[in-house]
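Hi there,

I know you've been waiting on this one. I reran it after we fixed the sequence typo, so this is the corrected version. Both the input and the resulting structure follow.
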Amino acid sequence: MRNWFGNDWNWIVAGLAAAIVVPILSFFAKMPLWIGAVIGLLVFAGLVFALSPRRLFEGLDAKAIGKGRLDFARDLLTAAAPAAQRLETSSDHITNKETAKRVRHLAEIAADVFAKVEASPESAGTVRRFLSYYLPRAAEVAEGFATLEAKRLPDQKRLQEVDLVLAKLEDAFVHYSDSLVDDRLDTLDTELRLIQASLKEDIGR
């Protein structure tokens, strides 16, 4: 299961570790209880910090990219994260293997889009509709398929209709993911033209 920006597993792990360390130090290492408690507190604080989820766009130069662009991309990804989580979770509740595989593929493409936008926040506008419309709708459709399947006597025609919509959404997901690559290729094409012009001017070819 992916970390879609913000779970509390670091606090849980840190609490469990501290709860284990204190009695071990007190009863087995024969340390005074207060020393064990201090060490346990340090272990807890250290693990909370060390295991904390990485923040969005951590390490990127906000000044170079532009605070407005960065905030726009952060807001888009943060708002879309719950839908991405729902989409990934829904695949575990679908018994039809092909449909479950398709929904997992949708979740993988969504994760790829998130990674691309995080690497290049200025590209967020290209996938705004994907993140704000197609991704939440895909999560709803996938959950709907799982709900239909859970009936004692599922309507096979409705299941086929929903599966068809998921297949079309898969095409849309691929389109938007590839559009982020196309943006980079447009920049490459521009660079190639400029280099070729410079070479022709400097060395005649």
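Quick highlight: The chain has two domains: 9-50, 62-203.

Best,
R. S.
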